């Protein structure tokens, strides 16, 4: 190695220490047309845990766009997940770190909003995305606590109501309970999640009063959605999932920060890892504080992108 250091090569004594790289054009493409490995490379670049299967699932239940450079590298993405004709969630919004703050995220978001026009929206915003979403008219509501870690099952007192494994025959009741909590029907999404999930439910007077689904996602498994009216019921239906994943990575995203549910989540090994903010555009949000036996709420999200 010469005294001038590693940058020197044969005959390159005149090389400048820095190089101005020309600006290049990006073009939009449909996320459905891109190899899963390239989409996964994008999410890895922003530190997200999505597997190729998670991207595939997102594409099956939603639509979206990517930004490609001149040699087809995937630089950014944004997706939307419709529920009926009036409502959608937005997610999988990311821009490769070296290209952030150049307007690509805003460009893709505007395309998503025009492609899904006529709807109200909900999304979960990272700190990095707050300025972008606020500039598009989104309003912040509640913090989501992303809890994760090595699950710790345990001998906790059994719930007063028996908890049982859900079967395909429970899908209609699960869909209806989810709709009461979420505020809009997610029949298509719940049916797809149900196929990939193990589920536990609890009944009162012959009606489903709480359920918790759990499926492979990211670094391990995610518990969600979880719907119940009472904290005790939510704990009771999540408990078997924790026990089944004892010693393994488990994640749960919740709006709740007080009461027995978040305490139970922490004791089960899932500590707060990060927070995001639930925002909406034209769509009111059910207030989790007003839960009760006849007012089911969402105790845990399906994922941040899906709500
Ligand atoms: C959030 C994100 C998608 C924005 O994409 P982008 O292509 O940089 O967005 P734009 O260039 O269109 O910028 C939009 C606004 O966000 C701001 N912004 C962009 N990156 C930011 C960052 N890392 N921190 C804070 N603000 C940021 C821009 O300054 C701009 O605000 P302005 O209009 O007031 O100047 C991008 O930062 C990202 O991928 N972050 C990591 C993954 C993530 O958090 N995704 C959001 C999930 S909800």
UniProtKB/TrEMBL annotation:
Alphabetical list of Pfam families matching this protein: Acetyltransf_18 (PF18014), Acetyltransf_7 (PF13508)
Keyword Aminoacyl-tRNA synthetase among UniProt keywords: no
Recorded superkingdom: Bacteria
Keywords assigned by UniProt, alphabetized: Plasmid, Transferase
GO molecular function, one term: acyltransferase activity, transferring groups other than amino-acyl groups
Keyword hit for Transferase: yes
PROSITE patterns for the chain: GNAT (PS51186)
InterPro entries named in the record: Acyl/Acetyltrans_Enzymes, Acyl_CoA_acyltransferase, GNAT_dom, YitH/HolE_GNAT
Domain N-acetyltransferase: residue ranges: 26-159
Matching PANTHER family: BLL4206 PROTEIN, SLL0310 PROTEIN
Name of the protein in question: GNAT family N-acetyltransferase
UniProt source species: Azospirillum oryzae
């Amino acid at each position: 190695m010469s005294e001038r250091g590693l940058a020197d090569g044969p005959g390159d004594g005149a090389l400048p220490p820095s190089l101005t790289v020309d600006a290049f054009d990006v073009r939009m493409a449909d996320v459905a047309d891109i190899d899963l490995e390239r989409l996964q490379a994008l999410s890895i670049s922003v530190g997200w845990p999505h597997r190729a299967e998670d991207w595939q699932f997102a594409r099956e239940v939603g639509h979206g766009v990517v930004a490609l450079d001149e040699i087809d590298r995937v630089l950014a993405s944004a997706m939307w997940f419709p529920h009926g004709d009036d409502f959608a969630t937005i997610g999988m919004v990311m821009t490769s770190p070296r290209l952030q703050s150049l307007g690509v995220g805003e460009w893709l978001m505007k395309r998503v909003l025009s492609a899904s026009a006529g709807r109200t929206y909900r999304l979960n915003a990272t700190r990095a995305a707050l300025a972008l979403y606020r500039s598009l008219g989104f309003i912040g509501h509640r913090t989501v606590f992303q809890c994760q870690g090595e699950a710790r099952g345990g001998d906790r007192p059994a719930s007063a109501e028996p908890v049982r494994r859900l079967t395909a025959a429970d899908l209609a009741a699960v869909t209806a309970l989810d709709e009461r909590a979420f505020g809009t029907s997610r029949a298509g999404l719940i049916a797809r999640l149900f196929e990939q999930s193990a589920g536990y439910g609890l009944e009162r007077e012959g009606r489903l009063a709480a359920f918790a689904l759990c499926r492979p996602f990211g670094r391990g498994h995610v518990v969600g959605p979880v719907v119940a009216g009472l904290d005790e019921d939510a704990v009771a239906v999540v408990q078997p999932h924790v026990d089944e994943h004892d010693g393994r990575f488990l994640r749960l995203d919740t709006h709740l920060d007080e009461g027995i549910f978040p305490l139970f989540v922490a004791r089960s090994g899932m500590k707060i890892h990060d927070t995001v903010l639930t925002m909406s555009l034209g769509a009111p949000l059910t207030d989790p504080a007003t839960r009760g036996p006849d007012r089911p709420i969402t105790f845990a999200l399906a994922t941040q992108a899906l709500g």
